[in-house]
Amino acid sequence: MKNKHDYHKISPEQQPLMGRGLKQSTNKRREFLKQVTLSSIGAALLPLNLKAGSNPKQNQDIKPLFNRITGKTIFNKEHLQHIAFPIGGLGAGMFCLEGYGALSHFSIRNHPEMFNEPGVFAAIAIQEGSQDKVTAKVLEGPVPNWKIFGPRDSGLGDVGRIFGLPRFREASFESSFPFGEVHLKDQDFPIDVIVEGWSPFIPGDQDNSGLPCGTLTYKIRSKSKATLKSVFSFNAKNFLATDAAAVNKITPMKGGFILRQEAVKKKAFLENDLAIYTSDPAVKIDHCWFRGNWFDPLTITWDTISQGKIRQVDPVDKSAAGASLYIPFTLAPGQEKKLQIHLNWYSPYSNLTMGEQLKGEELKTASKSEPASDISTGKKNDTGFYRPWYSARFGDIEEVADYWITHYEELRAKTNVFNKTFYASTLPSAVIEAVTANLSILKSPTVLRQYDGRLWCWEGSGDDFGSCHGSCTHVWNYAQATAHLFPALERSLRQTEFHENQDSRGHQTFRANLPISPTTHSFHAAADGQLGGIMKVYRDWHILGDAAWLKAIFPKVKTSLDYCITTWDPKGKGVIEEPHHNTYDIEFWGPDGMLTSFYLGALKAFIEMVTYLKESTDKYQELLKKGTAFLENQLFNKEYFIQKIEYKNLQAKDPTNVQSFGGAYSAEATALLQKEGPKYQYGNGCLSDGILGAWIGKMCGLEDFVDPSKVQSHLLAVHKYNLKSDLWQHANPQRPGFALDGDGGLLLCSWPKGGKLSLPFVYSDEVWTGIEYQVASHLMGMGKVKEGLDIIKCARGRYDGRIRNPFNEYECGHFYGRALSSYGLIQGLTGLRYDAVDRTLHIQSQIGDFTCFLATNTGFGTVTFKGTQASLKVAYGKIPVNSIIVNGEKMS
């Protein structure tokens, strides 16, 4: 269906009139422009490190630049070192286009393979004019320094790598999610090349955004005055051949070949296919590289390439070493040639299962659910192991390829609509970069989508295996992107949490089984994860706008909240004080600002839902009232929120006898217990997450339930005490790799007023981007835009390509889910939120006038707020708006 680009001006009866808050908003814009424009927006178009009058061409460190006109971030020189841009489908696997043009991270077999650079490469041979000489190069730039010596086994000489093949001298990289481009130049070579990689990303369309597909387009432009006779080739080692017992072969397909490994008995997961093909009619195919020993296959293949020859070999029955596509063409002076190479994969089975399965009577009585119709594949998986959703949609690799090539132009056009719409935003460049860079997480192997259509996630990706399983609720609490971009998939997480993960008492296991099934309840519930889930039910209901969905899940929500009250607030104080497991993988003992803010947010959300359903709220109102008073008076030290450590006057047992990830108490730890209390607390510390529940509530659309002045004070204290411009004097005995030495970053906790414990909570000295973004978003939402930008710039400064991949913010694993808190920066700056229940557009701008991307359950577009008026431009789908609320006041 053709997409309508419907520019919908808010009707006269909907246009906001001048009212309270609008003048203030305008003044905020003036202040914002004074403080931020020159240092943030303007600087985004200039090399930040160049002195006046210096020559950029002579500079060796041109920092990444965001060009607002093109919507692209440009990386050069040393900032290319670690770039790896994911291409693939949501829950379907990926490969990466690196900053210098190499293809790596081939994670297409239902698990991460972060160092899988298997020898898949493009090359070109050129004969210029009447010259007899043929010159050939791999279509890549220089090999990054870190690859040459340092990785495991590099002392053996980088055996089997293609590093030694001739290549271009210069490269740069440009990103405009979900498109990445490598620009290749060489003064001694008669062509310039642009390599573009992409895969679909269409908010609201999780199926087409989750295809196991990607395309590379090579744009080859002549800079010679002579005619160029050229042979382009795309080459792949048969890297799917991993098991000697399995038949591996390379089979033909239209315009290309398929790397294929077949399954063997009791090892269905060995079945893997990768199709590589083109629509160019001139293509010639070598289905079987020269078979021999040592380096024979690559030696003969490069010999063919370097002479400008074409080798055509028919398929063999098995054990082909590799295959190549050859496309001959000529280029007139100044002419450009575009060549598309499509990569599709199909790995229908795995040996992956996670969690503890219920059995017998427990299984019979456990809550089970079916996927909602908007995501369901309509098929069931009876293998007992994870199968990807696309294997229910497509029967084999040929069906995938047929769908891809048939719908290619449509998918490209819809993805372009998203790209142009998102980058029409006028938000600060640091915000645009932080949001789009982390959307790459949704294309990484961190995210899985199982056979029936439901979402399931790791916390992050290890080098070869997922890191920390089960759509962990206390980590994915922070993530804001999926709820707005793919809300049907986000709701499937609620379905799992409140059905398969919740027992009859209301206890939720915070890690889901894979395949999703009712799980055991042998460990603590996570207080932040379970209470956050209640707030997210409120959010998801308002994004969906379906009362029937709320009514169906509400009984489970009530059981969950009642369990939380009984377990962590048995005395009815309105605060969490019994030992409560949380995202730091330990239990806090006694009341604290972080988890009590979650509790109050859950109560507030529950009361709003109960009110809508016209049931009694008295019990919960009283808890909210008492808890708010306790938080604001007993847990606020006049500057920030703290923890009051308690373990003697609780119902819980002695900390030395309680189940915990913290392990047993040694004799030394027992002595500390008597002196300081339980291990792994924060006490009087200034915790960056110290009022996290209030931010989650704001992201979910709840009205303030904690005094905003105290919240702002806490956030400013976090900015003052925890944000460091460098870490040279900071001691971190925990996991220092996230930020160290000259890196800047926001510490998880500090103790500016003293009282640091001998053994504070286990990650206290670390820096996590997911927390940096939530604090920045919260600061912005409280009007402290400059302070929020300080934190964002610090975080993104670490991920500038020199040492870390700009598209892989890691924590406990690559592409870590918590970093999707970055999407909340949009709402923090603009207050932009669409409520589908009453079809209301909410705006609370902290930067005055803006244009900003908006995604809803039914479509996406841009909202422009200027002066006293708002307008909505629908780019895809539909977004019905009945009213607008600006700064809490309904405009008429």
Task: Describe this protein's structure.
The chain has 892 residues and is of the alpha+beta class. It is built from 20 helices and 36 strands. It has a 10-stranded antiparallel β-sheet. A 5-stranded antiparallel β-sheet has the order 8-7-13-18-17, with helices on one face. Strands 1-34-33-32 form a 4-stranded antiparallel β-sheet. The longest helix is centred in the middle third of the chain and has 26 residues, at 397-422. The radius of gyration is 28 Å and the shape is globular. The model is unreliable at 1-60 (pLDDT under 50).
Strand content: 15-25%
Relative helix content: 25-40%
Oligomeric state, counting identical vs distinct chains = single chain
The whole-number mean of residue pLDDT values reads 92
Secondary-structure-derived class: alpha+beta
Distance between the termini: 35 Å
Shape: globular
How many helices in DSSP terms?
Answer: 20
Q: Work out the number of β strands.
A: 36
Unreliable parts: 1-60
Taking Cα atoms only, what radius of gyration do you get, to the nearest Å? 28 Å
* Main sheet attributes: strand count, strand direction, barrel closure: 10 strands, antiparallel
Spatial strand arrangement across the major sheet: 2-3-9-10-11-12-19-16-15-14
